Amino acid sequence: MITKIIENRGMNHEVSLCPPSDCTGCFACEAICSQSAISQFIDKEGFRYPRINYEKCIGCGACERTCPVINPIKKYQTGKIYAAWSLDDRIREKSSSGGVFSELALATLRKGGVVVGASMDVNSGYIYHSIVTSEEDLDSLRGSKYVQSNISGSLYRSISIILKEGRVVLFSGCPCQVAGIRSYFKDCENLFCIDLACHGVPSPELFKMMFDELKSAVPHLEKYNFRQLKMWGSCTSPNIVVSNLRQPVLLTGKYTFYQDAYIKGYSLRSNCYSCQYSSVNRIGDISLADFWGIGKMRPIDASYKKGCSLVSLNNERGAYLYNEIKQALFCEEREIEETIEGGNTHFQRSCDRPSERDSFYCDVKSLSIDELIIKYNLSLISKPTIFNKIINKVYNLLRVFFRRK
Ligand SMILES: Cc1cc2nc3c(=O)[nH]c(=O)nc-3n(C[C@H](O)[C@H](O)[C@H](O)COP(=O)(O)OP(=O)(O)OC[C@H]3O[C@@H](n4cnc5c(N)ncnc54)[C@H](O)[C@@H]3O)c2cc1C
Ligand code: SF4
Ligand code: SF4
Ligand code: SF4
Question: Which atom of ligand 4 has the smallest separation from the CA of 346?
Answer without folding.
Answer: 1
